[in-house]
Amino acid sequence: MLIAIEGLDGSGKTTQARLLAEYLRKRGKDVLLVEEPGTTPTGKAIRAILLDHGREILPLAELLLYEASRAQLVREVLEPALAAGKIVVADRFALSSLAYQGYGRGLPLELVQELNAIATGGLEPDLTILLDISPEEGLRRKVQPASRGEAGVRPTTFLDRLEESGLEFLRRVREGYLKAVPPPPRGRVLDAHLSQEEVFRQIVEIVELALAL
Ligand code: TYD
Known about the structure:
Blueprint: E1 2-7, H1 13-26, E2 31-35, H2 41-50, H3 59-83, E3 87-91, H4 94-104, H5 109-120, E4 127-132, H6 135-143, H7 158-161, H8 164-180, E5 187-191, H9 196-212
Parallel strand pairs: 1-3, 1-4, 2-3, 4-5
Helix pairs in contact: 1-9, 2-3, 3-5, 4-5, 4-8
The structure holds thymidine-5'-diphosphate.
Thymidine-5'-diphosphate (TYD) binds at residues 9, 14, 35-37, 66, 92, 96-97, 100-101.
C-alpha cells in the first residue's frame, strides 16, 4: 500500500508522515518512509541542485529534475518495497509536480501528467492525503516554527517582504492541489489549520479505514 501525504510547505506533512509511519510500525506493520525529492543517493544529489537558491532553474528543467528523482525512487525503492508487502508512506509524490510545476509554474498540465506517468511507471498512491493550508499560514509556520519565546530571532517581517509573486505562486499551487487531488476514497483533504493532534487523529481514522478495505 502506498500512502502519499501532500501539501504546501508549512502544512505539517513531514511531521504527519513521520507520526503515521511510527503509528503503523507500532501496529506491527512493515513501514517505509520516503521523501521527495530525496531518499535515494541520486535523489539527494538532485534535491541539492533543486533547493540551491543561488542558481536559476527554468520551469521545464525543474520539472525534469523532480521527475528524474522520482524515476529513481520508484524503481530503486518503491517497487521493491511494495513487492515485499510493505506500507510506503511518501512525503510528497507525483501530485506535487502537478501542483507546483503545473498549476504553480504554469507548465502544461498534460505535459506534467505525461512525465509523471513515465517517471512513476504508472504507479499511483492507494491513498493521497492533502493537508490543505493557506499560503500565509504555511509561510508563517516556516518562518516562526514551534520555538516560541524566541521572538526577534527570526525575521517577523518576512511575510511583508515576500514578493507578492511568491504568494501568488503558492495560491495557484494550493488551488491546483484542491482541483487535482483524487476524489474519495483515494484522495482526502484535511484542514491543516487544525492542531497537529487533531490532524493526526483524522489521518489515523482515514488510514485505518483504508487498511480495513
Ligand atoms: P519538501 O522537501 O517537502 O520541503 P521541506 O524542505 O520543507 O521539507 O519539498 C521541497 C520543495 O520541493 C517544496 O517547495 C516543493 C517542491 N516540489 C516541487 O516543486 N515539485 C515536486 O514534484 C516535488 C516533489 C517538490
